[in-house]
Each structure stands twice: as C-alpha cells, then as structure tokens.
Amino acid sequence: MKKITSLLLSGVVLAALAACNAKTASNAPNSTDNNGQPPATNTSQTNQNDASSGVRKKQIESDIRAREQRNKAGGDEMKRNDGDLESEVRDKLEANIPASKLTADAKDGVVTVSGTVPNQDQIGKIAPLAQQIKGVKSVTVKATVAPPKNK
What we know:
alpha/beta, 4 strands
C-alpha cells in the first residue's frame, strides 16, 4: 500500500512540475528566442511585491532545497532534470530580481535566460544567481534592459 501511495504521489508531483512554465511573470516570453516587451509599471510593482514577500522567498528556497534533496537521494545531485533546472533558476531569479520578466531554458545543464530587467545592474546578477543552482554548468544571458513602461 505504501508503494502505491508513493507512486501516486510521485505521479501527481511530476504532473505538477510538467505543468509549470519557467517564467518569472505570466506575461514573460514563452521562449528564450525573444525578449518580449517590458512589463507595465503596475505589473512590475505587483510582481516585485509578490516576489519580495517573506513567505514567497521562504517557499522558493524550500522548493529548491526539496528538489536538491530529492536528487541527492536519487544518486548524483549534480545531474538534474532540465525542467527542474528551468524552474529553480526561474524561482531564484524571481526572488532576487522581482521586477523582471524572465524565462529560462535548460538543456543538459546549460541554461539560457532571456526577457527583460529594469536596469543594467540586474543583468549582471542573472548568471551568478543561476550558477547557485546545483547542476547548472553554464549560463547564457540573452536578457535586455527595459524599464517598466507606463500604460
């Protein structure tokens, strides 16, 4: 019975992870092939408030730790699923660069991040933050600077 319960629970978790879209905002680009448009000022502020809340930061860090522990229990903690890397990098960027519209794509540990950030300083934060995630081998930053625009 325990094995069936574990199997069902694992299936639900995998389905939920597959449904996640690795973006920092709902209107972030769907692909790393383009950068999309900068967010509206009010959208940017809403995203920043959400991402910088203490509860959200704790949730993001907890999610990252749980994935790392799961990988460690499964064998090689540095060998990561591309979807997990995309999600963890996105979460890390969301918590630390909250006014951005970024998306992440991963292939065999190589992560590409594109989208927009409000200022040049934040471009420089992307690669070091992504490198903090176990399993990230290299980071390509295709993001551009685009301050929030007024509607």
